[in-house]
UniProtKB/TrEMBL annotation:
<dbReference type="Pfam" id="PF00590">
    <property type="entry name" value="TP_methylase"/>
</dbReference>
<dbReference type="GO" id="GO:0009236">
    <property type="term" value="P:cobalamin biosynthetic process"/>
</dbReference>
<dbReference type="InterPro" id="IPR014777">
    <property type="entry name" value="4pyrrole_Mease_sub1"/>
</dbReference>
<dbReference type="InterPro" id="IPR014008">
    <property type="entry name" value="Cbl_synth_MTase_CbiT"/>
</dbReference>
<dbReference type="InterPro" id="IPR012818">
    <property type="entry name" value="CbiE"/>
</dbReference>
<keyword id="KW-0949">S-adenosyl-L-methionine</keyword>
<keyword id="KW-0169">Cobalamin biosynthesis</keyword>
<dbReference type="InterPro" id="IPR000878">
    <property type="entry name" value="4pyrrol_Mease"/>
</dbReference>
<dbReference type="InterPro" id="IPR029063">
    <property type="entry name" value="SAM-dependent_MTases_sf"/>
</dbReference>
<dbReference type="InterPro" id="IPR050714">
    <property type="entry name" value="Cobalamin_biosynth_MTase"/>
</dbReference>
<comment type="pathway">
    <text>Cofactor biosynthesis; adenosylcobalamin biosynthesis.</text>
</comment>
<dbReference type="GO" id="GO:0008276">
    <property type="term" value="F:protein methyltransferase activity"/>
</dbReference>
<dbReference type="GO" id="GO:0032259">
    <property type="term" value="P:methylation"/>
</dbReference>
<feature type="domain" description="Tetrapyrrole methylase">
    <location>
        <begin position="3"/>
        <end position="189"/>
    </location>
</feature>
<dbReference type="InterPro" id="IPR035996">
    <property type="entry name" value="4pyrrol_Methylase_sf"/>
</dbReference>
<protein>
    <submittedName>
        <fullName>Precorrin-6Y methyltransferase</fullName>
    </submittedName>
</protein>
<dbReference type="Pfam" id="PF01135">
    <property type="entry name" value="PCMT"/>
</dbReference>
Amino acid sequence: MSVVGIGADGWDGLPEASRRTLRAAEVLIGGPRQLDLLPAADCPGARVAWPTPLLPAVPGLLGAHEGRRVAVLASGDPMFYGIGRTLAGILGPDRLRVLPHPSSVSYACARLGWPLEATETVSLVARPLDALTARLHDGRRLLLLGEGADSPARVAALLRERGWGGTRIRVLEQLGSPREALLDGTAADWPHASADPLHVLALDCVRDPETLRLGVTPGLPDEAYEHDGQLTKRYVRAATLAALAPAPGELLWDIGGGSGSIGIEWLRAHRDCRAVAVERSAERAARIARNAAALGVPGLRVVTAAAPAGLAELPAPDAIFIGGGLTAPGLLDACWDALPEGGRLVANTVTLESEALLAERYRRHGGELIRLAVAAAVPVGGFTGWRQAMPVTQWSVTKG
Ligand SMILES: C[S@@+](CC[C@H](N)C(=O)[O-])C[C@H]1O[C@@H](n2cnc3c(N)ncnc32)[C@H](O)[C@@H]1O
């Protein structure tokens, strides 16, 4: 099976190898818009339009044409947020011949004079817009794959709401076609309610002066969170994330989520990280979801339950953090049993009762038992003295 990338310039923009493949195909599969780009005289193969929704129909469609020369049309580069990924997953890469075309982001970088390798891309297609927030840094250039005619207006509204109103937005429409067009403005006064649905957005990020500056490492300022006091404070949080050591694709259980900070900073560590926060208070669970959206990780799953209730239904974790509920009967055992060999467990506490439990586990399973004591300088009369926060005992261990 061949997968042929095609651009908005249609047949005229195809290299000879792609044309040869399409001429020779017995079956041509693609979106109606893409199929219409092929001249009937050159491409006599039977034409099959993708149904919507596409994904569930793919295996049946491929099976129906087994043994014939099939060419699937994809927009731009088939392996960049495209159908190539789905087909490679179903057929295996060895049964695919992919003929790429420049992607929309290659075109956008060409028009903007931006180096592709230094330009981060965020897809808004079938993804929550809030995820964009985690990618915003002063002076950063971003390309967004838009979804629908209103996505520039929605992006502008989000940027205003999150304190990035000065950000320049350029909407590059119909890239590569004779109908290319550009909309240009700032988020603060974006005038266009809609755009051509085929577009890429280019952002030059500018933070409003009063917007809190957030870096990329764990240990965000406590003010970044809405909280009721149940928050792992900045320095202990940074040390906790260091012990948890997130890696791309890994899943964290954040038990006793509180304000959600541990799960949130786990997710901010890499876009492929996954996390579930388990919190018994419904009010706090709602707050965790708000914090996750505001800090750009709307994918944080929040489960309202008093652990160990609810844990059995969760997918197996790579790491577990226990920030609350240590003394709940069966909680530590349930966590330990759920952890695969090589998985990490980190538990923090400020109470003697929970500390005794952690000391006993430390004797049994090893790992590291540490005490974190942070003091901050505060005014004392006309002078300055240390205010000591409650020391936090932390047990961290790798299973097996
Ligand atoms: C100290 S806070 C955790 C702070 C959190 N790591 C953060 O930074 O926001 C402890 C939280 O655990 C929750 N909790 C206590 N026992 C629990 C249990 N058995 N299951 C789920 N949540 C629990 C409490 O409601 C509280 O919100």
